[in-house]
Amino acid sequence: MTKLDTVQLGADRLRIGPWRGDPRVAYIAPATGRPPSVDAVTECVRLLRRQGYDRALTSALTRAERTPFDEAGFGEHERLHLLRHDLYGLPARPPRRLRRGRWRDQPAVLAVDAAAFDPFWRFDARGLGEARTATPVARFRVAELHRHLVGYAISGRAGTISYLQRLAVHPDAQGSGLGYALVVDALRWAHRRGAASMLVNTQERNGRALDLYERVGFRREANGLVVLALDLVPAPTTPGAS
Fold it and tell me: Where are the beta strands (DSSP E) in the chain?
């Protein structure tokens, strides 16, 4: 598992490393609760070029966080909906049995993730581990069908805000109610743990996930998130071009 590095540039900190373990594509993200400076982003881009990456992708950024990346030359790669649930009027727990996820479930969980997401969004072992440790308190639940693991959810809480970090159901099991059960389980757990709201994001083109989240009471925030990208290798010049 390749770990990310934290780069300190004056008062700014950013996390960098390979995207999903790809040695050609870099990941770059703010490491604090405030946007980095343009100078810090630019210096990180120089560092990534020296390290031999061909392309850089950001984490999902808010409007404020994206500004220095825009000014450093990044462009939009994909837009995401950001949704919030205020944790009242929660749905009743569905009659679906879930169990606690374990580290030994990792191969099956990653197989479900690979089947549920396109290659850009798939988790590797590092991504799965980071989702499970992104918040001080976390919940890892899995769903089984005919004794096979076919779905999982990772949720977490930091203070009064909780997050649905990841939800995946194998395509062969979608429509069975397991995704609904996993989301409701996460909401009810967050409420019991004292959270005031839960946030989740999903691709704008993922209509199925959006429908599920809105059905259990999530509402879209006015401003979504965006993943930005930057080519680190200059385009080749055409011989004889002026």
Answer: 5-9, 12-19, 22-30, 55-58, 75-85, 98-100, 137-145, 148-158, 161-169, 197-203, 219-220, 225-231
